[in-house]
Design a protein that fits this description.
two-stranded antiparallel sheet; alpha+beta; about 210 residues; 8 helices
């Protein structure tokens, strides 16, 4: 509990922004500590998804992303004022066609906030898969959580319901490559082909809805 005061400062900062699901992890990065935040999505909005995303889901998804990015920056600025380096990794911060700057789910799992499912989605202990994530990488030291090694067992709901057939059904374990679990290209191309009219970059949401996690 050496750095508990730092944890409390960050928790208080995010609470002022309306975010209470926060975890801390040690990661393999030039900035070796990660702050992971979780924002739950609206159960009502997710519940309206059938075999395709809705306009309401698209706008809700974008609004939650913006909310996360704003909260991360506010906290990052405070970290900077305390003399530490930081990098805010936004909710949809991409550096490649199918990958982000840093995998939010990696930090969230290492922080002990939940597990990674067969869909390669993060599944929160509190909210299931109906969440969006954000991360701050920093050299500010923290007391960190205990990583989850839980998996989805025999549940294959996301596998059978995925219209792009992008989920292989393999359980997550430490060190597994995402490609063994999930075909990001197949998912992305299916969404672009079928849902581009709903919104640019629209995500399907079916695997999120059907997850029982």
């Amino acid at each position: 509990m050496i750095f508990l005061k730092n944890n409390e400062l960050i928790l208080n900062n995010f609470e002022k922004s309306g975010i209470i699901d926060v975890g801390f992890a040690k990661v393999d990065s030039e900035l070796p500590f990660a702050i992971s935040i979780i924002v739950p999505l609206s159960n009502y909005v997710i519940g309206q998804i059938t075999d395709k995303p809705t306009f309401e889901y698209f706008h809700h998804y974008r609004a939650v992303n913006a909310f996360i990015d704003n909260a991360l920056l506010k906290c990052g600025l405070e970290i900077g004022r305390m003399g530490y380096d930081y990098l805010c990794v936004g909710a949809s911060h991409s550096v490649g066609e199918y990958t982000g700057k840093f995998q939010h789910k990696t930090a969230a799992r290492l922080a002990g906030l939940g597990r990674i499912g067969k869909s390669a989605l993060f599944i929160s202990d509190k909210h299931g898969a109906r969440v969006r994530l954000g991360t701050i990488l920093t050299n500010m030291p923290f007391d960190v959580g205990t990583p989850s090694e839980q998996d989805c067992g025999d549940c294959n709901d996301c596998v059978t319901e995925c219209p792009a057939m992008a989920i292989s059904g393999v359980n997550f374990h430490s060190g597994i490559n995402r490609e063994e679990m999930y075909d990001a290209k197949a998912c992305s191309e299916y969404m672009k082909r079928n849902f581009q009219h709903i919104g640019r970059g629209s995500v399907c949401g079916i695997c999120i809805k059907v997850c029982r996690g």
